[in-house]
Amino acid sequence: MIDRYTLPCMGAVWTQTRKYELWLQVELAVCEAMEQMGQVPHGVAARIRKKVTINPSRIAAIEHVTKHDVIAFLESVAEQAGKDGRFLHAGLTSSDIVDTSLALQLVEAAQLILDDVRGLLSALRDLAFAHRDTLMVGRSHGIHGEPISFGWKVAIWFQEFQRQQLRLEAAIADIAVGKLSGAMGTFAHLSPSIEKAVCQRLGLKPAPISNQVIQRDRHAAFLSALALMAASIEKVATEIRHLQRTEVLEAEEFFEPGQKGSSAMPHKRNPISSENLCGLARVVRSNSLAALENVALWHERDISHSSAERIILPDSTILIDYMLVRLTNMLSKLVVYPERMLVTLNQTGGLIYSQRLLLALVDKGAIRKEAYEHVQQHAMAAWKGEGSFQALIEQDPFIAKHLSAKEIATCFNPKAYLRHQQQIFARVFGRQVQRKSSTRTQSTIPKKTSTKRNI
Length: 455
Prior knowledge:
By secondary structure, this protein is mainly alpha-helical. It has helices at residues 10-13, 16-36, 44-51, 56-66, 69-81, 94-130, 150-175, 192-202, 217-244, 272-293, 304-332, 338-345, 354-363, 368-383, 389-394, 397-402, 405-411, 421-429, and strands at residues 135-140, 143-149, 177-178, 205-206, 251-252, 335-336, 440-441.
């Protein structure tokens, strides 16, 4: 069985050498299965494995003449294998080798991506717990709504990436299939038992039915999962960009010593990581569209999908790998400003407590329509600068008839909005002990965080 999960970086999955290594593994796995069934002399696969080395330059030279990559590969192998080479590719078609080995490459790539997701989830968990009770204002339509906590916002991101993890795992199961059924997929020259034995050896499942290719809805689902992952990355990055705006400045990307933000303006500190991630998300999404368009092929197959896949599969997996690592590093060093969050929270002079006040009036017997109109009247006056919202409320006879000054003051307590925070966190993270966080606030200096591997 191929050890698919030990490659040092995503780029290594998609080298020409790696592709040819997997092609050879598939060919030899078929040869070994045929040996076990008495269709090929015993020891052929072992002798070929011992003699043959992958030579991309030689394969490229042959392909220059043949204009066919699989034939060039097979001729290169045959040159080294001698007479045993005649047993390779018996009953197979090019797509048997190409599609089955591509499944192995995609599984390799996906396992590296899943490792990245686990690292991101750990960083998000730390950040969420570190700021579980850090009050800030919630916004809808970009307008102040009601108090939330920054940790609560991050917990939403955490669970979203958990869902992305599950989607990717499902996509891996969908793509991890092999096909060794011949030119039209009818097993005219090779039995299904060979395919089953080879797929088991390679750690794949046999495609229950195929024509000349593995059906491309599987690949489209895989790239759609990556596109969804990119969309969530962009979601987080967009939020960081908004929070770093000068007039907001509730959080910002860590600014490295010696870093420069502008060639013209020395004062600039820009959210460049977040902006880069937003841009790259567009590329991954566009690649998923190409994968969807690859589903419809002529009759039993054409190769219009092949040229696109040589770009979109390596590019999308490499990009998502890079994006996840970069987002993890950014969040692990994110600078959060709780004091600034409180200033912003109080910026509207208590208008954000209007619903709590409305509900308190209704609870005390006020007609909802009347209560809404009185609260809104004073809210609009406060918007216009005609006085403090709380002071206007306290002076309203209708409201005073239902609520005491103490009860009104209680409505303006932001901590009331966090009273279910522990229960929400238990639903998201489980009932676990709070972990130490590497998150940095304004008063601390973060250590440099390197990526866990080269991309």
